[in-house]
Design brief:
alpha/beta, ABC transporter transmembrane region fold, Rossmann fold, 4-stranded antiparallel β-sheet, 10 strands, elongated, binds adenosine-5'-diphosphate, binds magnesium ion
Length: 589
């Protein structure tokens, strides 16, 4: 599935798989094909009616016949209009339904992928899969596959009719096919490469804009506007150049087709005219022939376009199915037993871990946390503290060793059931652009208004929320930007407490909150967390000192553990950390 596909227009395995999505709408697609067949056939009638009018009705001065021919002409037009209208409606409806199904399946699948997938795939690329790749599949259905049927009907029908009217003249017409196909396939190749280049340029231009505006404060602080103008101009000009290239191909292609068509018409006119003069062809037949020739060339001209649609749809399909074939970890989680009750004991047994092969982040880490214990993790930035939490929550699996929850290996448990009993404040606080209430509940209707109140009170976020114009209904900006960093942390704290978790994981949860508020939170936590297990990453001495036990991490190694006093006495890394981080406070302690 990962082999690059350039130039291949039809892969049966992919097509069969796509057919599974089409099948539920098979009736609609079938009906639409039938209607296309009819409208293709109706298109063949017009020139023949012209021939009857010219060869029979007019010379014989048969007004009745002429009227009937005109009436038939109108009826055919109306029928053709009606069939095309319904065909379009039906196929679009089926196409949109198939896209909706695909998008839902992709979204649901992606949401259940575990974090390594999102580390490897930028959000922008994932969003593209969900939007433009799905859109390409729709194009395949509505303008590719289905209309090829109409084209085939037209081409075969006209070929037969031309041969039937005058085989010699028909052969003259066919001589123009090779140059026409050649020109059109060449053009499509240039156009496709050009479009690909413009898409890439648009992506880069968007990248520059997105980064500039997301980081607008830094841009202004460091006066980067001028330099940004320059890099924008470079990308902007490159986009213009890319478009000009595409345009040149278009400017050339249509006139060339026009010329080829004109040559064909001239040949037919010459050959046909000679035959009319020699009485081997009627005047009406010649007129009809000319009309058929014109209709014959349009599908030929567009054939290469359809080939391209097919080609890019195959590439999109491959990417989409590639995602669906990447196993979602949560599907595997479903098969594992759930943690029905959490006693509160945790053990890391010889755990080693790396995100990137060859760059170990945790090295042979072993520790135990007893039920109800309050453990602090300390260590320099990058020591691996947050990673301990990620492993415990099942975001990643240890590369070696195991994590035991109440004595059971986490690998044999559904980590979602542990997450459900855990209140976590991550180092990167993420609030959604909904209101405060929703951000605390996260859409969990089982939580009552009292639960939310209690959580806001315990985390000391109550005063902040009451100060907002709309209170609990206040809508937060994107990622909660309308609040200060400390305020965001407090809300995220409320979120963790609202569910009355058995286990609390706090990763620098109050690092941006003032000391006084933090002190108040500590007090509230003492009550709220009575008898609950709690792991805290903190830099403030007040938080660390109160812990039952302190784990000291250094470059991914758990090098010291014990109480504050024990560790100070050891005069090791903790002692140094305390001196550096808390200065004279250490002496006081
Ligand atoms: N998603 C990731 N991919 C690759 N490396 C990572 C990732 N997250 C963290 N790291 C690396 O792992 C190491 C430990 O990170 P982390 O556990 O966040 O440290 P701490 O929380 O102690 O500051 C760091 O060197 C960091 O660069
Ligand atoms: Mg961290």
């Amino acid at each position: 599935m990962t082999r690059p596909r350039d130039g291949q227009a039809l892969d049966m395995a992919l097509a069969r798989r796509f057919a599974r999505y089409v099948r539920p709408y098979g009736g609609s697609i079938g009906l639409s094909l039938g209607l296309l067949f009819i409208s293709g056939a109706l298109d063949l009638v017009g020139p023949y009616l012209t021939k009857i009018a010219i060869d029979s009705a007019i010379p014989e001065q048969d007004t009745g016949l002429l009227l009937r021919v005109v009436a038939a002409f109108v009826v055919v037009l109306v029928l053709s209009f009606v069939t095309r209208y319904f065909q379009q409606i039906i196929v679009t409806r089926a196409g949109q339904s198939i896209m909706r199904d695909l998008r839902s399946e992709l979204f649901a699948h992606l949401q259940r992928m575990n974090l390594p997938y999102f580390n490897a795939n930028p959000v922008g690329r994932i969003v593209t899969r969900l939007t433009s790749d799905v859109e390409t599949m729709n194009e395949l259905l509505t303008s590719g596959l289905v209309s090829i049927v109409a084209d085939v009907v037209t081409l075969v029908g006209i070929t037969v009719i031309l041969l039937w009217i005058d085989p010699g003249l028909a052969l003259i017409t066919y001589t123009v096919i090779p140059p026409l196909l050649f020109a059109s396939f060449r053009f499509r190749k240039i156009a496709r490469d050009g479009f690909r280049a413009t898409r890439e340029r648009v992506g880069r231009l968007n990248g520059v804009m997105q980064e500039t505006f997301s980081g607008i404060e830094v841009v202004k602080l460091f006066g980067r506007e001028g330099a940004n103008d320059e890099s924008f101009d470079r990308e902007n000009t490159a986009l213009r150049t890319a478009w000009l290239g595409v345009n040149e191909a278009f400017a050339l292609f249509f006139p060339v087709v026009q010329v080829v068509l004109a040559v064909a018409m001239a040949l037919v006119l010459w050959g046909g005219g000679v035959r009319v003069l020699a009485d081997s062809l009627t005047f009406g037949e010649l007129v009809a022939f000319l009309q058929y020739v014109q209709r014959f060339f349009l599908p030929l001209r567009d054939l290469s376009e359809k080939y391209n649609v097919l080609q890019s749809a195959m590439a999109s399909m491959e990417r989409i199915f590639g995602i669906l074939d990447t196993p979602a970890d949560e599907a595997e989680f479903d098969a594992r037993p759930k943690l029905e009750e959490f006693g509160g004991s945790i053990e890391f047994r010889n755990v080693s871990f790396h995100y990137v092969e060859g760059e170990p982040v945790l090295k042979n880490v072993s520790f135990r946390v007893r039920p109800g214990e309050r453990v602090a993790l300390v260590g320099a930035t990058g020591a691996g503290k947050s990673t301990v939490f990620s492993l415990l929550l099942g975001f990643y699996e240890p590369t070696e060793g195991s994590i035991l929850i109440d004595g059971r290996d986490l690998r044999g448990l559904d980590p979602r059931s542990l997450r459900a009993r855990t209140g976590t404040v991550l180092q990167d606080v993420f609030l959604f652009s909904t209101d405060v209430d929703w951000n605390v509940r996260l859409g969990d209707d089982a939580l009552t208004a009292e639960d939310v109140d209690r959580a806001l009170r315990s985390s000391r976020a109550e005063r902040i929320v009451d100060g907002l114009p709309a209170g609990r209904r206040e809508r937060l900006g994107e990622r909660g930007r309308s609040l200060s960093v400390g305020q965001r942390q407090l809300l995220s704290f409320s979120r963790a407490l609202a569910r009355r978790p058995d286990l609390l994981l706090l990763d620098e949860a109050t690092s941006s909150v003032d000391s006084e508020t933090e002190g108040l939170i500590q007090e509230a936590l003492h009550e709220a967390l009575h008898g609950r297990t709690c792991l805290v990453v903190a830099h403030r001495l007040s938080t660390v000192r109160d812990a039952d036990r302190i784990l000291v991490f250094h470059h991914g190694v758990l090098c010291e553990q014990g109480t504050h006093d024990e560790l100070l006495r050891e005069r090791g890394i903790y002692h140094r950390l305390v001196q550096v981080q808390f200065g004279t406070e250490a002496d006081v302690a």
